[in-house]
Amino acid sequence: MKRWAGVLALWVAGAAWGQDVEVRMQDMQFQPAQVHIRVGDNVRWLNTEKRGYHTVWFQDEGLDESEPLFPGEAWQRSFDLPGRYEYLCGPHPDMRGVVIVE
Ligand SMILES: [Cu+2]
């Protein structure tokens, strides 16, 4: 019985649609600056600084910048199409990252 429950749990995990991936905003950087995900996955950006705010802005796509994210705040987005999605932080344009969706 226990064994079957384990097999079922593995199957459910493998079939799950939309994994969550976290990117931290720390030391004026996106960490990791590059993430590889699969179609349907969700990326969550979390500000783990002691002070100061950041944004997440997919400027190249013509999307709106996120609201300012203060320490402890997060913003998320899912990706439904394969591609390479570059983004930056509005207040700190040198702070950049990329999401690669496969
Ligand atoms: Cu920033």
From TrEMBL:
Q: Which Pfam families would you find in this protein's record? A: Copper-bind (PF00127)
Q: Tell me which InterPro entries the record gives.
A: Amicyanin/Pseudoazurin (IPR002386), BlueCu_1 (IPR000923), Cupredoxin (IPR008972), ET_Amicyanin (IPR052721)
- Domain of life, per the record? Bacteria
Annotated ranges, domain Blue (type 1) copper:
21-102
Q: Which UniProt keywords apply?
A: Copper, Electron transport, Metal-binding, Periplasm, Transport
Q: Which cofactor does it need?
A: Cu cation
Tell whether Electron transport is among the UniProt keywords: yes
Residues annotated as binding Cu cation are H54, C89, H92
Q: What is this protein called?
A: Plastocyanin
